[in-house]
Amino acid sequence: MAIYLDHNATSPMHPEVADAMMPFLQNPTGNPSSLHGYGRMARSAIESARAEVANLLGCSSEAITFTSGGTEANNMLLKGYVDRGNERAIVSSEIEHPSILEPLRQLQDEGQNVIRLESDHDGQVDLDAARKELSAADPQLLSIIYANNETGVIQPVELLAAMVDRDSCLVHSDATQAVGKIAVDMSQLDIDAISFSAHKLRGPQGVGALVVNRKPKHVLISGGYQENRRRGGTENVAGIVGLGKAAQIAGLEMEHKKHHLQQLTDVFESRLAAIPGSVVFGQRAPRLPNTTYFALPYYHGETLLMEMDRAGFALSSGSACHSAVTEPSHVLSAMGIENSLALNAIRVSFGMDNSLQDVEALVATLLELVNKLPAVIRQAAV
User: Fold this and answer.
1) With contact defined as beta carbons under 8 Å apart, do 54 and 179 qualify?
2) Of 302, 314, 322, 330, which is most buried with the most CB atoms under 10 A?
3) SS3 track for the chain
4) Is 321 part of the annotated catalytic residue set?
5) Catalytic member of 25, 136, 320, 321
6) Which structural domains are found in the chain, ordered by start?
7) What angle do CA 216, 190, 52 make, to 5 degrees?
8) pLDDT tens-place string over residues 160-198
9) Nearest-CA neighbor of 90 among 57, 137, 29, 20?
């Protein structure tokens, strides 16, 4: 069985989450909008889950809109809360997830003024450049990723939020990678909205949420009055129950989880440093406790990924494949990393089921693959 090291892509469901969902998958479940007993039972389960999510995030239950995941939540925010036709800008960054970047492109094609803030070499939004852009832009919406899905670099969201007029600018953060790994407490954060997905915190796939206290200007999915009239369609009861349980567990395990994941990452990066020419992206910036985005200058990322897969390790690459042409990560490109190195990028993202033995096995396999290369290639990278 492969050693799974791709938890930023999806994290296997916690057994207690599966147990909580099972009654709603095996037994008759009413429509939560129905008034009979089955419907009331489903509605009660949804509201209990909503309360658990609110407790984890330090927000009101009324602010939570359940969605099919982080991608829908991001689209709901950008397409539902932007004042179409208003010349005031929408400001984001070059290092966002595609579920932010693509809707922004669509809005720009429709004539909206979209500004993308630059990143520095460490993978954080450049604050000096951002200050100038935000001062000139007077944006209606600022959306900045909380922690990058590739590098794990945590962004200075609150510092950026302080640069805009909070009375007229909605501040949102895609917190998909952060929720469940580090504390995201909206009662302490000076931002208006976050989005996230259950399967990144050991919940089920296909469910997430947008957290925002304001009513949308436009409803993304119409045709029903569910979720306080913010999202039409019968709710995914089992999935929402699973998200609620995952949120409860995440809150209880937070400190232990952070310590465990940080220990794995620290040991891995100390071992990785012994491999000639190895590079860790964003290493000087604050990062998620579980994420290492690295490259070996002499090993193409896709090739190394396949070799590691054959050896029994599930990792991920930082490149994207479009029409059979491999392109470097847009995040690394925004950081100013040369294409030749960016194409070698590999991401390791640990989870709670990983151990120090997994780390040692990973490093041993990497060393074995490197040592198979001709000495002249290895020496050229040093």
Assistant:
1) no
2) 330
3) CCEECECCCCCCCCHHHHHHHHHHHHCCCCCCCCCCHHHHHHHHHHHHHHHHHHHHHCCCHHHEEEECCHHHHHHHHHHHCCCCCCCCCEEEECCCCHHHHHHHHHHHHCCCCEEEECECCCCCECHHHHHHHHHHHCCCEEECCCECCCCCEECCHHHHHCCCCCCCCEEEEECCCCECCECCCCCCCCCCEEEEEHHHHCCCCCCEEEEECCCCCCCCCCCCCHHHHCCCCCCCHHHHHHHHHHHHHHHHHHHHHHHHHHHHHHHHHHHHCCCCCCEECCCCCCECCCEEEEECCCCCHHHHHHHHHHCCEECEECCEEECCEEECCHHHHHCCCCHHHHCCEEEEECCCCCCHHHHHHHHHHHHHHHHCCCHHHHHHCC
4) yes
5) 321
6) 3-9+254-370 (3.90.1150.10), 15-250 (3.40.640.10)
7) 70
8) 999 999 999 999 999 999 999 999 999 999 999 999 999
9) 137
Q: Quote the CA–CA distance of 158 and 177 in Å, as a whole number.
A: 17
37-71 pLDDT, tens digit per residue, is: 999 999 999 999 999 999 999 999 999 999 999 99
Residues 6+ apart with CB under 8 A from 332: 150, 281, 318, 341, 342, 345
Task: Please check whether residue 205 is in contact with residue 240, taking contact to mean a CB–CB distance below 8 angstroms.
Answer: no
